[in-house]
Structure formats: C-alpha cells, structure tokens
Amino acid sequence: MPKPSPTYVPVLTTDKQAEDFLDQDLSGLDFAQFKPMRFEALPKSARVTMRLPEPLIAALKARAKDRGIPYQRLIREALEQALTKP
Questions:
Q1: 73 CB neighbour count, 10 Å cutoff
Q2: Does residue 36 have a pLDDT over 80?
Q3: Contact 5, 29 (CB under 8 A)
C-alpha cells in the first residue's frame, strides 16, 4: 500500500531529510501553513551614494512598484545579478 501524502511539513534539520521529504507525493500538503519569506537576511551595513538621471530613477521606481518591492532592492538585485554573470 502506498504511503499517504503528508499534510504538513515536519521540521527538517538536514539536507538528506529535506531531499527525502521532497521525494514523496506532496499533493495533499496543506499550503495554508506557509508564510511569505524575505530572502534578504544579511544586514545592510554599507551605504552607496550615486547620481543617476531622473528618467532612470523613474523607470526603476516604476519597475519596482510593478513587482511590489522597494526600488533600492531592485537596484541591489541588478547589482547581484551583474556579479554572477561571467
């Protein structure tokens, strides 16, 4: 008889436990238990000041508003992406 699908996510303390959990049927999982998570966990301890053209700032603010994030986060994401490209 197949193992029933879990309805909640147990506390997983190792990568192996997480991989084993994901290898099963999760169709019965209760998604109401999940909460939004912020991925920006590192403290922002340095400050950068730069001058940009007004149209560029306006475009950044509009794009950030569309995504529902602050425009400074959008700039930070763009900088991080630029650093991960070869």
A1: 13
A2: no
A3: yes
